[in-house]
Amino acid sequence: MAIPSYKVRLETNEPITPNVRKLVFRLEDPKTITYKQGQFVSFMLGTEDGRPIKRSYSIANMETDGVDSTYIEFVISYVEGGKASELFFNAEPGKEMEMTGPFGLLCLTEELPKRVFLVGTGTGVAPYRSMIEQMRTRTDTEFHILFGAQYLEDMFYLDDFKAVALLDHVHFHPCLSREEKPGCFSGYVQHKLAELNPNPETDIAYLCGNPNMVDEVFEMLKDKDFGVKQVKREKYVFSRF
Ligand SMILES: Cc1cc2nc3c(=O)[nH]c(=O)nc-3n(C[C@H](O)[C@H](O)[C@H](O)COP(=O)(O)OP(=O)(O)OC[C@H]3O[C@@H](n4cnc5c(N)ncnc54)[C@H](O)[C@@H]3O)c2cc1C
Description:
Layout: E1 5-15, E2 20-29, E3 40-45, E4 53-58, E5 71-77, H1 83-89, E6 96-103, E7 115-121, H2 126-130, H3 132-137, E8 142-149, H4 158-164, E9 170-176, E10 185-186, H5 189-195, E11 203-209, H6 211-223, E12 231-235
Parallel strand pairs: 7-8, 7-11, 8-9, 9-10, 11-12
Antiparallel strand pairs: 1-2, 1-6, 2-5, 3-4, 3-6
This protein binds flavin-adenine dinucleotide.
């Protein structure tokens, strides 16, 4: 089956941390997209040397469902010298682009165990922001959102995560590796996760973002007897083209 492709138009492009911008695109043709919370899309981008490049970005929309959505929101971090980074960071509202998708399996399953750990570093929390409305209604499961960053100023969507964490069954753990701040864990997400005593009998984990973090946490969970199916992973690997 052909992969759906969409023409989208950039609506807003604003900095939300010193290194991350939030971009909102309006669907132009077709006018809507249906996706599952946790999925990503891929952009085909033109470059100066004429060779198109493909880059993927997680859908960060916070909606009750992903049916017939008319817009797509992304959070994109700047990579020094990165082709897509330059393009997105300098894109003006009104710019048209092509994207395909949605792709990916980092989605909440029908059946969930007692506890779900949602672990992300940097823009790797985008899929979890998209899952917020689902978390609200799935009251039989305890959710732990672990957001890792170096400094507090590198974090975003904090109001959304804190708001959902007002519910008894949702817990938000901001983790800072380079500074101490009230209300934040000092250290890496790995260390916070270890403190929560993950148990393969009762828990599953979702890992997203920096490939090294994903590998490290996966190894830690395997040492605690988690099976491959109990750890869902999305690595933000760099593209070779
Ligand atoms: C499934 C998936 C979902 C993704 N979702 C997001 C998302 O929601 N938000 C987001 O910001 N990114 C996301 N990414 C990463 C994104 O697709 C690009 O890889 C990223 O934007 C860098 O592209 P670029 O063209 O700017 O850099 P490139 O031109 O690809 O790279 C430039 C140079 O920087 C190096 N490099 C590339 N990325 C990094 C990095 N992160 N850290 C250090 N060095 C790097 C490369 O090796 C290269 O030397 C995702 C990736 C995948 C696979």
